[in-house]
């Protein structure tokens, strides 16, 4: 795992488009991660790359969810997980989410959140198997007619946050 650098932007965009292509075809419109401008996210240190034998095989985009009290982030949110299509089904997504959990704890918070499209039932089932619980559903302001499923996973409480 490594943080993406500015020179990785094209590879991030291309991998994301390939990974989400089945959803783009099924829905007639690309999911939000496909249309995202990744340059600012890379600059902010939000994009992590998974490489095997020097080749990009997956990525995860993680956003801090600010706390109201100025302490470490309240949570870490997964914006996107993308796996090279021929590498899907090999546990790489689970590996990336495990990395996200490590990041949650290292940042002094104890909640990992994400949202997904209600039509992405396979993804929702995977997230549930990994310990995520659905916390609500809401319309997607960026895609009228689409429904977001909010999910979260609570991890061991962080001593750093509690004692700060």
Descriptive labels:
164 residues, alpha+beta, 6 helices, 7 strands, single chain, Aminopeptidase
Radius of gyration using CA atoms only: 16 Å
H-E string: EHHHEEEHEHEEH
3D shape: globular
**End-to-end Cα distance:** 29 Å
Integer count of domains: 1
- By CATH reckoning, the class would read Alpha Beta
Task: Give start-end ranges of low-pLDDT stretches.
Answer: 158-164
Question: For the residues shown, what is the average pLDDT?
Answer: 90
**β-strand amount:** 25-35%
Structural class of the secondary elements?
Answer: alpha+beta
Here the CATH topology equals Aminopeptidase
DSSP helix fraction:
25-40%
The biggest beta sheet reads: 7 strands, mixed
CATH architecture: 3-Layer(aba) Sandwich
Task: Please give the order of strands in the largest beta sheet.
Answer: 1-2-3-4-5-7-6
CATH evolutionary superfamily: Gcn5-related N-acetyltransferase (GNAT)
Instruction: Give the number of helices.
Output: 6
Compute the number of strand runs: 7
Question: Would you give an account of this structure?
Answer:
With 164 residues, the protein is an alpha+beta fold. The protein has one domain (2-163): 3-Layer(aba) Sandwich (Aminopeptidase), CATH 3.40.630. It is 35% helix and 30% strand. The protein has six helices and seven strands. It has helices at 9-27, 32-35, 38-43, 92-106, 121-129, 159-163; strands at residues 2-3, 47-52, 55-65, 75-83, 111-117, 133-139, 147-154. Strands 1-2-3-4-5-7-6 form a seven-stranded mixed beta sheet. β6 and β7 (147-154) form a beta hairpin. The longest helix has 19 residues, at 9-27. It is globular and about 40 Å long. The two termini are 29 Å apart. The model is unreliable at 158-164 (pLDDT under 50).
């Amino acid at each position: 795992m490594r943080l993406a650098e500015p020179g990785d932007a094209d590879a991030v965009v291309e991998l994301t488009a390939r990974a989400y292509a089945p959803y783009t075809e099924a829905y007639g419109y690309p999911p939000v991660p496909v249309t995202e401008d990744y340059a600012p996210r890379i600059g902010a240190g939000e994009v992590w790359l998974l490489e095997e034998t020097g080749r990009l095989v997956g990525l995860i985009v993680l956003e801090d969810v600010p706390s109201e009290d100025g302490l470490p982030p309240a949570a870490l949110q997964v914006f996107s997980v993308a796996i090279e299509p021929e590498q899907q089904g090999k546990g790489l997504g689970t590996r990336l989410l495990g990395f996200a959990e490590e990041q949650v704890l290292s940042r002094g918070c104890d909640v990992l959140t994400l949202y997904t499209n209600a039509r992405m039932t396979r993804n929702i089932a995977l997230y549930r198997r990994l310990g995520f619980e659905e916390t609500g559903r809401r319309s997607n302001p960026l895609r009228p007619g689409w429904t977001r499923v909010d999910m979260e996973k609570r991890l061991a409480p962080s001593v750093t946050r509690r004692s700060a």
